[in-house]
Amino acid sequence: MTFAGRGLQRTVGGRTLFADLDFEVAEGQVLCVRGASGAGKTLFLRQLAGLDPLEAGELSLDGRSPQEWGPQAWRAEVLYIPQQAPILAGTPAEFAAQLLHLHAQRQRSGDDPRTLAAGWGLAQTAWDQTWRTLSVGERQRALLATLLARRPRVLLLDEPTAALDPDALERVEESLAAETCVWVTHHPEQAARRATSILDLSDA
Amino acid sequence: MPDSGPLDLSALELGCAALLLLANGAVSVWLGLGLGSRLLWAGVRTVVQLSLLGVVLVFVFDAQEPLLVVGIGSLMLLMAAREAVRRAGRRYRGVYGHAFLSLMLASGVSILLATLVVLRPDPWWQPRYLIPLLGMVLGNGLTGISLGLDRCLLKFDEGRGEVEVWLAAGATPWEAARPTASEAIRAGLIPILNAMSVVGLVTIPGMMTGQILGGSDPSLAARYQILVMFLIAGVTAAGTTGCVLFAVRSAFDEGGRLRPERISKVG
Predict the structure, then answer these.
(1) Closest CA to B231 of B103, B101, B75, B128
(2) Cβ contacts (< 8 Å) between A140 and chain B: which residues?
(3) Does residue A89 sit at the B interface (CB-CB below 8 Å)?
(4) Is B255's Cβ below 8 Å from some Cβ in A?
(5) Does residue B29 surpass a pLDDT of 70?
(6) What percent of chain B clears pLDDT 90, i.e. is strictly above it?
């Protein structure tokens, strides 16, 4: 499996954040994305997920473009996980159940998010609390576990461990060890631990 | 049943009623509300607008001209669509057309039902029936549409993260927007549902009051009011649903992306 982009570009208000950007991630590899605040790290991930339109260039997963996959199938395979889990309606358990009914997810097999999150120290009771009553770190773990359990081919991670304590952080990193990721991080040590290659948006 | 034409109401007598506004003005001055000029202006507008309406309606009722009814009806629709968008607080390109179309289809079908099947005046487009009914359904329908639009555009504009979590997981725009759409439609329907459950117990609706004061048999007035409530409920439900679905379609692009930059605040 190969996930690749060629000639990508992003401008905001006339300012070019990156242009002519190429990357390639093979199965099990982790591309760490670095850059100062405002360098366009999140916008880069959003383009990869097809949440923002491409200004130039092209993307491919296994040689097929997002158009060939279809936007929904593409996003189910190249799954973007936001930096902060938003406060959703209902509970994480309801979210996980509703997710299985999405057209793009129905045919796919997945894991049990509760088992995954239990390994990260998320209490079972958290699944039946409303998102509103969970702490930022609990929300992040519940969301990450639910989405990771859908087994996308590529994870687009936007500082996924920012809200976690060091212990939970280590265990989340272990769970992600075998995943193919494009991973935005501010921490050089995290990048050093996880990256198979590094993309610095400040240079692009 | 004592006879009935309504008692006459002269300009001088209305002037006495206007004394009540003076009481409002006194409160405004006393508490420093700063509402004096607005109160005066609102009072003047009430008098001018309603007097003009009276004159126009006399003309339209006497003329018995279908094209005139179409013209007045279209004008009412335009004003209602404009007001619905203005009250919603947020807009997008094409929202006026969507509000107009939703109101036109919803009120068109229900008014046709009322005039062709229920009341059957002769001719069926008799302005004395058609125009007041249209006014009632549009006035309420626009409230439903504005509440529905407000709720749904607010969510797309400021609750982007929530919608995009669903999109990111592979949801189609409709799958991602469905909770928002249901919530918006519910918000639009709550006022009329509330009104229907207390009507007659707590409130005597304006139209029924008018008919009774105008000399109608109260039980006939009640039946008319029931008809009007049903029409309003139908128009509000259909119009709000239609307009919210238009808004959902407009907020997403062909690549299944949410485009909040298409939504802007009004005013």
Answers:
(1) B103
(2) none
(3) yes
(4) yes
(5) yes
(6) 74
Residue A37, class by beta-carbon neighbours within 10 Å (0-12 exposed, 13-18 middle, 19+ buried)? exposed
CB-count burial class (<10 Å; 0-12, 13-18, 19+) for A94: middle
Burial B136-161 (b: 16+ CB within 10 A, else e): bbbebbbbbbbbbbbbbbbbbbebbe
Indicate the pairing of strand B263-265 with strand B90-92.
antiparallel
Distance, in Å, from the CA atom of B144 to the CA atom of B138, rounded to the nearest integer, reads 10
Domains of chain A (ranges, CATH numbers): 2-200 (3.40.50.300)
Which residues 124-163 in chain B show a CB within 8 A of chain A? 159, 161-162
CA distance A102 to chain B (A): 6
pLDDT digits (tens, 9 = 90+) for B144-161: 999 999 999 999 999 999
SS3 A196: coil
Hey, what are B113's tokens? 């039902």
- pLDDT one-digit tens code per residue, A160-196: 888 888 888 889 988 998 899 999 988 888 878 888 9
Q: Please give the order of strands across the beta sheet that includes A30-34.
A: A78-81, A154-158, A181-184, A30-34, A197-200
CA closest to A48 among chain B residues: B168
Burial (CB count <10 Å: 0-12, 13-18, 19+), residue A11? middle
- Kindly report, residue by residue over B57-93, the tens digit of the pLDDT: 999 999 989 999 999 999 999 999 999 999 999 999 9
Q: How confident is the model at residue B1 (pLDDT cuts 50, 70, 90)?
A: very low
**Reported ipTM:** 0.95
Tokens of A144: 């990450």
The model's confidence at residue B5, banded by pLDDT at 50, 70 and 90, is low
What the block records as the tokens of A112 is: 């049990």
Question: What's the CA gap between B251 and B180, in Å, rounded?
Answer: 12
Residue of A nearest to B174 (CA): A102
Element (H, E) at B103: helix B95-112
